[in-house]
Amino acid sequence: MKSYFPKDFLWGGAIAANQTEGAWNEDGKGMSVADVAQYRPDLDPKDYASQWHVSPDQIRAAMASTDTTYYPKRHGIDFYHHYKADLALLKGMGLKCLRVSIAWTRLFPKGTEQAPNPKGVQYYHDLFAEMKRDGIEPLVTLSHYEMPLYLVNHYDGWVSRQVVTMFVRFATVCFQEYAQDVHYWLTFNEIDSALRHPFATVGVVEEKYANAHDVKQAIYQALHHQFVASALATKALHDINPQDKIGCMMTKTLAYPLTANPDDQVLAQAYNRNNYFYADVQVRGAYPQYMLNYFEEQHIAIAMAPGDTELLRRYTVDFVSFSYYMSVVKTKDETDMAQVGGNLTTSVKNPYLQTSDWGWQIDPVGLRVALIDIYDRYQKPVFIVENGIGAHDTLTDGQVHDPYRIQYFADHFKQVNLAIKQGVDVMGYTTWGCIDLISAATSQMSKRYGFVYVDLDDLGQGSNRRYLKDSYYWYRDVIKSNGVSLYQEGNTTTATRD
């Protein structure tokens, strides 16, 4: 098998400001929704609904506390102060691209300010300049679960139309300030996650609403405002830097029917179709009819301002990016069937797949299916901007042997190669958490994704030193060979350290 990866393929990694930077109250930064996220050892790590949920009492407690032990995203891995050394490690791996996010509250602490915080602006100037010196292309997410907490408390988050104006101001400053160094942008991280964890994604606090219907109404209204903001941000980027590219970002959910029973087929089809709603609006420029029918059936009324329909139609994104971690199974009758959990939902266990330490079903072939489906649907370049395996790693004598991670990525990379062979235009592949970071859902450090080990535990204790895992050297060889090494004997189980 030959490598079909193009010469300009962006082999990379991905992190987010709220999970790595720390320095949560330094240099004028305001509180974000991430600063409310708690490490909850009393909860089952696989109970994602409870892990993500944030109540008004929890918000008040977080605002009154300066604790960083049980609010671990406040310290992250201290990337804010260690970024030069960390980028040097990623350069040593040969990374061509690094996906990062800009913390909105570093530039606009409350979100309402008319002018940005100079220290926040300068930090990202320094970060992007260092990335360029290291030969690493920035891929920058504007909103990655980091909206200002002030906007949640005073505007009900994205439910308020006013937040659109504030976000576009923030985005425009980013496009203007970083025009020399950043040429690839993403709008909203996993925009579809608004229904799974509305607080982190759109700033909806569920207890503020009378019933489940009103919560859903608020979420869809907030999503509409994000769609409008995406269109306006796309317009702003193309006005300022016409050559630059901006993409949407969704969680690629993928469902298989358990059996050939037509009822199972219909359930899987509906699940997959609903996943496309979010990209449909941003790529095709209009609400799909199936969602308009759903809104009518559910008595959901989306308030649209004059001109919204035209905005969505005119300012669509340049490419489609997505995260992919697992697939699920759908069947009409789940009675007495084994269940597994994941970042998306619980699911009937697929008997053909293994699961990770956190119960996520590992499905490399599903990534190829997803790539082909997305490309065939939209006929725009696609970018895998998150994928990886969270696992328990063991540091022994300064080394981490992680053949399971090497095997995972070897299997997934090969499926991407097959998708490219079948005509899919894939821009690149940024593996999630290329350096260990705080988990988005559970706020754990022990759920490790990286090629670089960070010596911190779930309580923030440790030296914070970095160690290179076996997978670091393996990925370096994959990048250097542009995927050719994937097909050399023994490459999926071993890595040669220098």
UniProtKB/TrEMBL annotation:
One of the Pfam families matching this protein, by short name: Glyco_hydro_1
Gene3D superfamilies: Glycosidases
Coiled coil spans: none
One MF term in the entry's GO annotations: hydrolase activity
The UniProt record lists the keyword NAD: no
Similarity-based family: Belongs to the glycosyl hydrolase 1 family.
Record protein name field: Glycoside hydrolase family 1 protein
Organism of this sequence: Lacticaseibacillus pabuli
